[in-house]
Amino acid sequence: MVNGYQFRLYPTQEQAQTLLRWIGCQRLIYNAKVSEDRYYRRFRKDQLALTGLPVPIDQTYSQYITERTSFLREVPSIVLRNGTAKWMQAYRRYFVKLGNRPTFQKQCGKQSVWLTSELFSFNPERDFSTGELTGYKLHVGTRKFPVGELKVKAHRTFEIPASIHIAIHAGKWFLSFNAQDDTLADFKEEALLSHYQQYGIEELESMTLGGDRGVAKPLVTSNGQIFDLREVQKQRIQKEYRRKLRWQRKAAKRQKNSRNQKKAYRKVGRYQQYESNVREDFAHQTSHTLVENPNTHIYIFEDLKTKNMTKRPKVQQDEQGRWQKNGARAKAGLNKVILTSAWGKVVTYTAYKALRAGKIVIQVPPQHSSQECAKCGYTDSGNRPSQALFHCLRCGHERNADYNAAVVIKKRGIQWLKEHHEPKAKKSVKLYRSQLGSERSEVTPVENPISRAGGNTNTQGSRKQEVLAARLETPTSAV
Length: 479
Description:
By secondary structure, the protein is of the alpha+beta class. It is built from twelve helices and 16 strands. It has helices at residues 13-43, 77-95, 189-196, 201-207, 231-253, 259-291, 306-309, 328-339, 343-356, 401-418, 457-461, 463-471, and strands at residues 2-10, 111-116, 120-126, 133-141, 146-153, 163-169, 172-180, 208-212, 219-221, 226-227, 298-302, 316-317, 323-324, 360-364, 389-391, 398-400. Strands 2-6-7-1-5-4-3 form a seven-stranded antiparallel sheet. A five-stranded mixed sheet has the order 10-9-8-11-14.
């Protein structure tokens, strides 16, 4: 089974500058492909010679190496090639409706470079006395473009991967990759569904756990467990948030693009990363606790559409055209709580950890789960007199609102399972080594080949200048 790994990386200052240049050049190629694609799609309907011709979707990049972009020759061609391969992979995701068309990558936030096996190697380290393997050293670069050995803090063993990602975020470097792990079981979701559908209702109730995700409490389960951050963590998050705001104000007052402003923004990123790390740790610990329970084999959650729930409210105008209040400020506060509650991560991490253990996660429709009585099934908005209390208007059943909703979700999941629903087919896009092309390929075989010399001569001749003028950026030495 394929497993994901992420380790801390500790390059020297000189190595960091080289890696930053690689990151910038790969981002430049990716953005140039996005700009070129938008150019063709914009003018193919307006230019008579281009009408009816398909937009070229290829992995060429040599047209971007000019006198103005001579710095692209100072990095390995594999780095540039992988930039076009990333763009192609993003377009393949669009073709199977897994995402939108590729968009421009920004210079802010987390930055990474994708390296294939031509640019790195793991050198084994062995104990001199016993000869046992103690770890690996990561060597990056080629003879012409050397980077050297990078210090990696690997906290677990792994197989040698085919490609790696080196990323920097808030001043910290990371190494991430996927590799085969034969120690993990490889269960199929379809087989597990067929297996658990054979059980009776009483057996399913004993092995099923329902979970209600809310704003006040991130997760409440049908067996009475409450998963939430500790008070000290909440206090530290608020403290780091205030520090982040203070350094944002300092950065805004400093000279634009100066070294001091970049230092201030790095501190902003570090303070913001603390909350992200706490939420990440909470999601992992919560999912681990759920999956490690030997009595639970099926986990039921609401199929919450977080993206739809956190949309901005629409603007409102009266008859005279004056803007009215639409609750945007209150909705922004609610959106922040939802987005920082780790709703999606808890379900995602529980799903893949459960699959490894031969267990399964099911998501059911969330409509009126907080208004339905877990005892008699009566649904009414009046059943929820307060945020924490549930009181059924028909049978008088009274319990904690989140616990009642967790029991309702559990019953819906068991009913869904007994109705023999087929699992949704999961779409995926894989990029194979044969699709990358050679190291310095000018043109790679593509799905929709097109002659670049065709069409209006003047328009085609100015394409390169307009693309470069619109999106050209020189990689900097700091991110």
